[in-house]
């Protein structure tokens, strides 16, 4: 991965963007992608679009959600301790004893999630080792509600403080690969297409959409307004190559063995077939996943928009998802924009993706 692309990834991941409060990360994304796009813009809810080859056809939407899981201030008690609600699939068990930041109108406020020392636990207190979200309390270093309300208020979003790090070789650790890697990939796809010598027929709309973690809302909004003829969605998927995960239930997906494609339901068979053809041409190994219901990604919202948008999901294997220590492979990640760019360049003028009957 080149230096600029790696720096862009690190900056994206380290920039707090909890669901419904994505503007900081979206500004980073727009500032980077502007150099590769014919135009960039955002809609009323912050979904951002970068367009290349405007006026081409068909219109291809490349989507990655810009938000991350987090928390929000829900209640402040008389002693100034802060209680929270979750934004998305935050796991309270791994949130205890963590450093965090409350993002306020006046700037960031530091805090820690309180944790009872094991010496002080007795009787049924040990059950609190697996708390509910309402059991968590945040210490911001004040001693009264009045003092707390001078710096924070109910509704302020919260993120954990963990940052991007290289683990070893091509493996990296971060808090929010889900799904800052998606916004990274669609931006990098524009970079590849902008610098490519291959004639591009399609209009490419790279999208960084909002509020996926709380209901796929941004994808629904922007897919409806863009009305693309075909869409590729990039998100993370569960790697199952570590202890305690049952492959019989969750499949066999490995980090550093290539991106995945998903088969079934929201994934249009002709779109998936084209992805496979492009990957084969590029000599990129694909891993395969099956779904029998929904994918849990923005693909679910996009494919049923309007009369149905042919869509395909490409995923990055991710160990320890929805934790402060998500682990992914840079090699796997770098291959995804290559596939997306190849997919875009493969589309003929006016081509339509239809199920063959």
What does this 3D model show about the protein?
By secondary structure, the chain is α+β, with helices and mostly antiparallel strands. It folds into two domains: 238 residues, Aminopeptidase (3-Layer(aba) Sandwich); 91 residues, Peptidase M42, domain 2 (Elongation Factor Tu (Ef-tu), domain 3). Helices cover 26% and strands 26% of the residues. The strands form three sheets. It has an eight-stranded mixed β-sheet with strand order 1-2-12-3-13-16-14-15, with helices on both faces. A six-stranded antiparallel β-sheet has the order 5-4-9-6-7-8. Helix 1 packs antiparallel against helix 2 and helix 4 crosses helix 9. The longest helix has 18 residues. The chain is globular, with a radius of gyration of 21 Å. The two termini are 42 Å apart. The model has no long low-confidence stretch (mean pLDDT 96).
